[in-house]
Write a structure and sequence with these properties.
- This protein is of the alpha+beta class.
- It contains 15 helices and 21 strands.
- The strands form five sheets. A six-stranded mixed sheet has the order 3-2-1-4-6-5, with helices on both faces.
- α2 packs across α8 and α6 packs across α9.
Length: 466
């Protein structure tokens, strides 16, 4: 029985304790409806106080509005308090240059944490299932991920709990059928336009032909890797004492102790050193990391290796110094419209495409940033370049007010050493987009837009891997 299975998951991972107040994230779909039903069935025995939270992201007009009404009716039927709100997530995504999925996730968790604070709740329960676990595992495996990436979704992170994480979607649908529970269906989940949807609709059914219990198998594998990842991180915390320290000139690594560690620990420790130095280790491929480790095993004092623009590791007597400096090169690179343009100065590839305003905008998690502009408002050529003195724009969401790029970076608390590494998308001398931050409001698509310019940015290593 599903209720018994979920109770076992709660007890096994210590997700809840007696007297907890719990915000239950309810979208209206089968997973969240079953989550709410099971937690309500367990509420008396566990002394839980439940509060429903639902956010309308305004992506699907009347459909999402009907889902909000459904959740409101469900709350009334169950006599449970509810917070139901709507936020213009599409506008947020345009302002920040985020994909719809990344923007929706950010706003959803921001909303849930606020509701938890307002209601004095110690836990936020979401409806992630074993199927979500399996899908995430496969997606990360296809992109190329290490143990940390493949360990996927934890049962609990902070105050976020996932009581259904050991429950399959088939179990949930059977539970809903047996109990005569109604739920809403999001039509977008049936469209193979997102990577996750394609994994769910095409890949998993194919794998089930070889293993009917593939969902449980992949979920168990993810749980196993999570345990091993936690164990390695615990050991690494002890091993790193006296090996890595941060100084004014970079991150210092004790050579002899570092080189005596197993390679798996050296990889992780080196990534942590890169992050401490102010760079992003996630931008370094496994091949590049291993090249750095080979260099560190054999380098003579005074030798240095360039890992990427501004990031170096060098040997100084019995230490290695990992330092990250802003890219010194000033560049301006015209973009192919449409097409793909390499930007080696930043290790990026920029892809552009022109679509009709009525077309579905492409959305791919392999891109770190992606956004869209009204093509007819843009002057050619469009270029990606470093900032120049006097650059300004009209940040989206600020009512048309202008702001110097320098002042914007100060307001956003962008470190001085990182500002020259933030590229600007420019058209006819006008800044369209501070890439990774905010777009210029004047160039956003609107009701009168006929042609849309989609701009997507990915890491060079991601492009190569694909």
């Amino acid at each position: 029985m599903l209720t018994t299975k979920v109770k076992h998951t709660i007890e096994r991972f210590g997700l809840l304790k007696s007297g907890d107040r719990v915000v239950v994230a309810v979208s209206g779909g089968p997973d969240s409806v079953s989550l709410l039903s099971v937690l309500r069935a367990l509420a008396n025995g566990l002394d839980l106080t439940l509060h429903i939270a639902h956010l309308d992201h305004l992506f699907r007009g009347e459909e999402s509005a009907n889902e909000a009404l459904f959740v409101a009716g469900l709350a009334k039927k169950l006599n449970l308090p509810a917070t139901i709100e709507k936020i213009d997530v599409p506008a947020f995504c345009r302002e920040r240059g985020l994909s719809s999925q990344a923007g929706a996730r950010a706003k959803r968790y921001e909303f849930l944490r606020r509701v938890a604070e307002e209601t004095g709740s110690s836990r936020i329960a979401t409806g992630h299932t074993a199927d979500d676990q399996a899908e995430t595992f496969l997606m990360r495996l296809l992109r190329g991920a290490g143990v940390s990436g493949l360990s996927a979704i934890p049962p609990m992170r902070g105050n976020i709990i996932r009581p259904l994480i050991e429950t399959t979607r088939d179990d949930i649908l059977e539970y809903l059928r047996r109990n005569g529970l109604e739920f809403m269906t999001d039509p977008s989940n049936a469209k193979p336009v997102y990577t996750r949807n394609r994994v769910r609709l095409e890949v998993l059914p194919l794998l089930k032909q070889f293993n009917p219990r593939i969902v449980e198998t992949l979920a168990a594998e993810a749980a196993l890797l999570r345990n091993e990842d936690e164990a390695m991180e615990s050991c690494l915390a002890e091993l790193s004492v006296g090996v890595v320290r941060q100084e004014h000139n970079g991150v210092v690594i004790a050579r002899a102790k570092f080189n005596s560690l197993p390679q798996a620990f050296r990889r992780r420790l080196f990534r942590k050193a890169v992050d401490l130095a102010g760079a992003k280790s996630s931008f370094l491929s496994l091949v590049r990391i291993d090249e750095a480790l080979a260099f560190m095993a054999a380098a003579q004092t005074g030798r240095a290796m360039r890992l990427s623009e501004g990031l170096t590791v060098g040997r100084e007597y019995e230490s290695f110094i990992v330092s990250a400096l802003p890219p010194p090169k000033v560049f301006s690179r015209p973009l192919a419209l449409p097409g793909t343009t390499a930007v080696p100065e930043l290790g990026l590839h920029v892809e552009t495409m022109l679509i009709d305003s009525s077309a579905v905008k492409p959305d791919d998690k392999n891109f770190i940033w992606q956004t869209a502009f009204d093509y007819d408002k843009i002057k050619l050529p469009v270029e990606l370049r470093t900032r120049s003195r006097g650059d300004w724009f009209c940040p989206a969401g600020m009512g048309g007010k202008t702001k110097k790029i320098q002042d914007y970076f100060v307001d956003e608390k962008v470190p001085q050493r990182s500002r020259d590494a933030v590229p600007l998308l420019v058209s006819g001398g006008e800044v369209l987009w501070v890439v990774g931050f905010r777009m210029d409001e004047r160039f956003l698509p609107g009701a009168e837009t006929k042609r849309i310019l989609v701009v997507r940015v990915r890491n060079e290593e991601t492009t190569t891997r694909q």
